[in-house]
Specification:
By secondary structure, the chain is an alpha/beta fold. It is 43% helix and 21% strand. The longest helix is centred in the C-terminal third of the chain and has 19 residues. The chain is globular, with a radius of gyration of 23 Å. Bound molecules: NADP nicotinamide-adenine-dinucleotide phosphate and magnesium ion. NADP nicotinamide-adenine-dinucleotide phosphate binds next to helix 11.
Length: 399
C-alpha cells in the first residue's frame, strides 16, 4: 500500500513518562504504517528542556506559529519533588504549556470524547460540550492583603504620564481581607477571536457567560469586547448557520444542564477552571478529554488534557503491564493530521484522521477498553479489559 503523502510538516512536541511511551507506540503502530509522516521534531522531555535551558520549548512554540499545526505529548512541570527526583535539573523550569500559550497567544478548548459504553451523568447530553477557558488574569494574577485596623482601602491607578485615578474600595472598622485583580483588553480580545474562530471551525454555536449584572464594569467589558469582535465574524456565522449569544452565568449553567450539548461555552479564567472540571467529570473520564490551543490567527496545537500519568510509568519501569488509556493522545494525533490535511488540501490525510478515530470507536463499541473506562461502563458484563499495548494493537488491527 502506498503511504499517504504530506506536504507541510507537523510540529511534533515529544514529552515525558508514560505518555512518552504511548507516543512512540501510537506512531509505530497507528501512524507510520499508513502515513509518510513529516514532522519537525522537538523533544520537550524534561531532561532536554533542562539541557537546552528550555530553549526547545520556545523553539517548538515558534515553529507551531510558523507551520500552523502542532501535536504535543504531556510533559512534566517540575515542582520541588521533581527537583529531588531529577537532581540534574538546574532550574525549576516553567510549565511548557504556559510558555507555549504565551507565545501562541491562544485559548484552550477542552472537549470530551463520547462513547456509547459510558453515559454522561447528565441524561440529556447527547453531544460533547467544549469549554473555552480564558487563560490570563483575574484571580490568577491578583494581589491580596489582610488588614487588622480600622481604616479605608483605596484603588489607585498611576498613569505613566502622571495622571492618577483613585476609588474608595471600602471604609472598615476591623480585620478585613482585600483582593486586587485585573485583565487586559488585548488579552480579552484575542480570547474572543480565538473563540469565534474555533466555533466556525467546529460549526457549533458559541455561548459566553459572565456576571455582568454585579460586576458591571469588569465583566461588562468582557461582554462588550465579545460583542464588538463578533461584528467581524457575524457574516461567517450566518453562512455557517451558527449563532453567538451572551447570557448571565447563572442562566448559562441552567441551560447547559438542560441542553443536548454540541456547543462551545466560553468562560472567564476562574469560571472556566471550575466548569471544565464539572463538565469533564460529568462526561466520564479525564483520559477521554482532548485539548486544543487555538491562536487568534488560526494556529492549532493538539494534546490530551491529562498529564504524564506518573503512577503508571513507574509500573511500566518495573516491567508491569499498564492500564493507561491512550485515546486522548491518539485523538491529539488524529486532530492534528486532519487539520494539516485541511490546511494543505490533502483529503486523504483528513480522511486518515477520521479513520483513526473510527477505529478507536469501533474497538470501544465492541467492549474492548482500558481499566479506567471499564470501571465506569454502563454494562460491565459486556466489557473486555485490555492493557495499554493490547488496546493499541486492537485499534491497529481495526485500522
Ligand atoms: P495525570 O498524569 O493526569 O494522572 C493522574 C491520574 O489520573 C493517574 O494516576 C490515573 O489514575 C489517571 N489518569 C490520567 N490519565 C490517564 C489515562 N490516560 N489513562 C488512565 N488513567 C489516567 O496527573 P498527575 O499525576 O497529577 O500529573 C503527572 C505529571 O503530569 C505531573 O508532572 C504534571 O506536571 C504533568 N501534567 C502535564 C500536563 C500537560 O502536559 N498537559 C497536564 C497535567 C499534568 P490512576 O493512577 O488511579 O489509574
Ligand atoms: Mg481546575
Amino acid at each position: 500500500m502506498e503511504k499517504i503523502k504530506m506536504t507541510t510538516p507537523l510540529v511534533e512536541m515529544d514529552g515525558d513518562e508514560m505518555t512518552r511511551i504511548i507516543w512512540q507506540m501510537i506512531k509505530d503502530k497507528l501512524i507510520l504504517p499508513y502515513v509518510d509522516l513529516k514532522t519537525e521534531y522537538y523533544d520537550l522531555g524534561l531532561l532536554n528542556r533542562n539541557a537546552t535551558r528550555d530553549q526547545v520549548t520556545v523553539d517548538a512554540a515558534n515553529a507551531a506559529k510558523e507551520l500552523g499545526v502542532a501535536v504535543k505529548c504531556a510533559t512534566i512541570t517540575p515542582n520541588k519533588k521533581r527537583m529531588e527526583e531529577y537532581p540534574e535539573l538546574t532550574e525549576m523550569w516553567k510549565s511548557p504549556n504556559g510558555t507555549i500559550r504565551a507565545i501562541m497567544d491562544g485559548t484552550v478548548f477542552r472537549t470530551p470524547i463520547i462513547i456509547d459504553a459510558v453515559k454522561p451523568m447528565v441524561k440529556s447530553w447527547e453531544q460533547p460540550i467544549t469549554v473555552a477557558r480564558h487563560a490570563y488574569g483575574d484571580i490568577y494574577k491578583a494581589v491580596d492583603l489582610v488588614t487588622d485596623k480600622p481604616g479605608e482601602c483605596t484603588l489607585t491607578f498611576k498613569a505613566d504620564d502622571g495622571e492618577t485615578t483613585t476609588l474608595s474600595v471600602q471604609k472598615v472598622d476591623g480585620r478585613t481581607i482585600w483582593l486586587g485583580q485585573h485583565n487586559k483588553e488585548a488579552s480579552i480580545r484575542s480570547f474572543a477571536r480565538s473563540c469565534f474562530q474555533y466555533a466556525l471551525n467546529l460549526k457549533q454555536d458559541l455561548w459566553f457567560s459572565a456576571k455582568d449584572t454585579i460586576s458591571k464594569v469588569y465583566d461588562g467589558e468582557f461582554r462588550d469586547i465579545f460583542e464588538e469582535e463578533f461584528q467581524n465574524y457575524k457574516e461567517d456565522f450566518e453562512k455557517a448557520g451558527i449563532t453567538y449569544f451572551y447570557t448571565l452565568i447563572d442562566d448559562a449553567i441552567a441551560r447547559v444542564v438542560r441542553s443536548k450539548g454540541g456547543f462551545i461555552w466560553a468562560l472567564k479564567n476562574y469560571d472556566g477552571d471550575v466548569m471544565s472540571d464539572m463538565i469533564s467529570t460529568a462526561f466520564g473520564s479525564l483520559a477521554m478529554m482532548t485539548s486544543v490551543l487555538v491562536s487568534p490567527d488560526g494556529k492549532f496545537e493538539y494534546e490530551a488534557a491529562h498529564g504524564t500519568v506518573t503512577r503508571h510509568y513507574y509500573r511500566y519501569l518495573n516491567g508491569e503491564k499498564t492500564s493507561t488509556n491512550p485515546i486522548a493522545t491518539i485523538f491529539a494525533w488524529s486532530g492534528a493530521l486532519r487539520k494539516r490535511g485541511e490546511m494543505d488540501g490533502l483529503p486523504e490525510l483528513m480522511a486518515f484522521g477520521d479513520k483513526l478515530e473510527k477505529a478507536c470507536f469501533t474497538v470501544l463499541d465492541a467492549g474492548f477498553m482500558t481499566k479506567d473506562l471499564a470501571n465506569i461502563a454502563e454494562e460491565p458484563e459486556k466489557v473486555t479489559v485490555l492493557n495499554t499495548e493490547e488496546f493499541i494493537d486492537r485499534i491497529a488491527d481495526n485500522l
